[in-house]
């Protein structure tokens, strides 16, 4: 099986972390420095770092660098990149299970800080027009919602799931969510409705609204990605 460039880089970085090249808590080289060191593009380095982050090895801070969180493989979630209908079905099914119950927990456990962070992401999404940034904001929203549950394992698992979206899925997702203003507005309304349920600490309502949102996402992904 041919391995992707980012997988090779991620493995090399993980080995260096395990060997103590970068101790826990230290900041590793910048994306630009790593790109030169490995002789690859910056996008490959970013994917490698996101893979390490999804598996709990590093914390990638926007504008602040990448820091080592652990130096052993005690926490590991492996998930292949989605490439066929069956993998898509399993991906959607797991996401539905995790996010609906995660939303219910978030409603029960959320703090004012969590609400402020979610509101901030929604405000940021409303001001953006760049499709890539909008997509990243959408993912951040779902991860922050999971974070409000207080379950770090849930957050890391969802990070891994989002990382496994293949190019076809990512492109279809962008086309559906952001190609038309009406879709962007609807997405914003659904996100706001979810946050309102969390604000009210209504677990059943939060679960129901996330379920409704994800069912629409599922219908779109099935239609545009593999059944077109």
Question: Which short descriptors sum up this protein?
Answer:
228 residues, Four Helix Bundle (Hemerythrin (Met), subunit A), globular, mainly alpha, two-stranded antiparallel sheet
Quaternary structure classification: single chain
> By CATH's scheme, which homologous superfamily of the largest domain applies?
GntR ligand-binding domain-like
Gross CATH architecture of the largest domain: Up-down Bundle
How far the N terminus sits from the C terminus, by CA atoms, comes to 28 Å
For this structure, what is the CATH class of the largest domain?
Mainly Alpha
What characterizes the major β-sheet? 2 strands, antiparallel
Radius of gyration, rounded? Answer: 18 Å
Derived structural class? mainly alpha
- Counted by DSSP, the helix tally is 10
Would you report the number of β strands? Answer: 2
InterPro entries: GntR_C (IPR011711), TF_FadR/GntR_C (IPR008920), Tscrpt_reg_HTH_GntR (IPR000524), WH-like_DNA-bd_sf (IPR036388), WH_DNA-bd_sf (IPR036390)
Domain HTH gntR-type: 3-71
Keywords: DNA-binding, Pyruvate, Transcription, Transcription regulation
GO molecular function: DNA binding; DNA-binding transcription factor activity
